[in-house]
Task: structure prediction
Amino acid sequence: MKNGVIPNPDKIFPISGVDTVTYVKPAIKNPNIIVGDFTYFGDIDFESHVTHHYDFNGDKLIIGKFCQIASGVEFVMNGANHQTNSVSTFPFYIFEGWDANIPPQDKMPLKGDIVVGNDVWIGQNVTILPGVHIGDGAIIGMNSVVSKNVAPYSIVAGNPAREIRKRFDDELIELMLKLQWWNKNINEINNLIPLLADNNLLNVKEKIRILINQDAL
Result:
């Protein structure tokens, strides 16, 4: 390991001398926010960027390992949605004094959990809306509003976000999804860094095929 230091996913500030980049997992307290090891946020107080996250909805934000989340990113949970199937959209039930109960969940506009895969790069000031699923290896362009699911290893951008292109051809995407490098142990990942940083994609394909065949033995 570099300078004898072992990567520690439980360290809030993982860059020496820098207090504006944080690993998310050790910093969160809300049990309905679930984040994998080594996912980082380009700011502090990640939970303040998960908005309208009310316990009575029971929705979760689930983020995988090794994601890169830039500053200004907002995860908008289901509590932001008002009833549009009733005459008024006003949420009387959340304010003091009104004689109104929380509607049953089958009458609420719930879209489910937000789920982000592994090794996803989310650019600055992106907004991710309720119920969205983002696949492994995807890239979300800055200032995008993500209202629909994002396929693995695709690049999306815009408002609403639309797919710009796939990062790789179908064969390499399939190989990456089989490799699942983020689930390997720290030593194995450390040894894979030259491969993960290689932009010679033909070389990468060949080496991943070998690794997958070795794992299958």
Summary: The mean pLDDT is 94.
